[in-house]
Specification:
Length: 349
């Protein structure tokens, strides 16, 4: 039986079903239409067509007045309205169940893919359904923001698939972040994701971390870690750039690789600042803004709402306490590395 035939037959049967079972039958009809992949408009049209056919087949007695005919029509329309509401409810409910199941399967697959704990053979079979070749190169992009929801994730996923093609991107919500796996050769994924986030959340409420393109199954986990750590570093260091690439922040994993060494550098170079009135915080902030402005005193003063003389005083005070001055070429790198290390370590406590 064709799609139109079964829908037409069921809609006609629904209108003539006993009143006690009609409501549930309408719900079931809507759910089946969703399972069959019919458009909601087709379901609505089917019920309205059946109503029209039933009214056309309804005989009018010779003694019926206009009021009686109107009453019959009103009763039929009221019944159709109730059944249509129930059918649409069944349709949307079934779609939601299917969507939730799809989301769960996708989230489990992405989790297995990125952790590498599943059987490689079974994982490859599941990956094929999503258009992913485990032997190819991939890039993992993570978007982090407050208020990310499954609805936003669905819209982003659909938009990326439309822009770059089905099978080239796989997007899901994982641990509160939007995680996008893209084919390694694609360009513009991060920029398009940023555009979509801006449309959904506005400006300044989100940040995107881009891992490096890596080959194979192990490379997916590596790219994920890089993207996640990039966003973690940005949070610690106060970076507000909307899109950050792991390749641009490789110095930070190096700094943290030997935690004892970076801790020793921070306490040795910057430790004396804790003895200053007001503590180390104002001086660390001054150095941070100064380095962000490439050593420009005027720009630093403007950003901190201080005078240039106040900035100069603070830098001289830093030299007096630590023996280091950012104006000395041989000391600038050590001082800047210590400041970055302090921000990464959350020093002083």
């Amino acid at each position: 039986m064709s799609d139109d035939a079964w829908l037409t037959a069921n809609c006609h049967n629904l209108l003539s079903a006993p009143a006690s079972v009609r409501h549930q039958a309408a719900v079931d009809l809507g759910a089946r239409a969703a399972d069959e992949g019919l458009r909601l408009g087709a379901l609505v049209a089917g019920l309205l067509d059946a109503t029209t056919a039933q009214w056309s087949a309804t005989g009018v007695e010779s003694g019926d007045t206009a009021i009686v005919v109107h009453s019959h029509a009103e009763a039929l329309l009221a019944s159709t309205r109730v059944l249509l509401t129930a059918a649409v409810d069944g349709y949307t409910r079934q779609n939601r169940v299917e969507l939730d199941r799809h989301d769960t399967e996708r989230a489990v697959f992405v989790n297995d893919l990125l952790t590498g704990r599943a059987d490689p053979g079974a994982l490859a079979e599941r990956a094929h359904r999503y258009g992913i070749r485990l032997s190819a190169t991939h890039t993992v992009v993570i978007a982090r923001a407050a208020g990310l929801t499954p609805g936003i994730t669905h819209r982003i996923d659909a938009a990326l698939a439309s822009r770059f093609g089905e099978g080239n991107t796989l997007t899901t919500l994982r641990d509160g972040d939007v995680v996008c796996i893209s084919a390694g050769g694609l360009r513009g994924i991060a920029a398009e994701l940023a555009h979509l986030l801006r449309a959904e959340l506005g400006t300044g409420n989100w940040q995107v971390g881009v891992g490096r393109t890596q080959p194979g199954l192990h490379g997916l986990a590596t790219s994920l870690d890089e993207a996640r750590h990039t966003l973690d570093y940005a949070a610690r260091l106060g970076f507000t750039t909307p899109v950050l690439n792991a390749a641009d922040l490789l110095v930070f994993p190096v700094l943290l690789r030997d935690r004892d060494a970076i801790t020793d550098l921070v306490t040795t170079v910057l430790g004396p600042l804790t003895t200053a009135r007001g503590g180390a915080a104002p001086y660390l902030e001054t150095l941070t803004v100064l380095f962000d402005n490439q050593g420009n005193h005027t720009a630093t003063a403007r950003q901190m709402h201080l005078s240039v003389r106040a900035i100069t005083y603070r830098l001289d005070r830093i030299r007096d306490l630590t023996g280091y001055h950012p104006g000395e070429p041989t000391q600038r790198f050590t001082l800047q590395t210590a400041v970055l290390g302090a921000r990464l370590l959350g020093w002083p406590p």
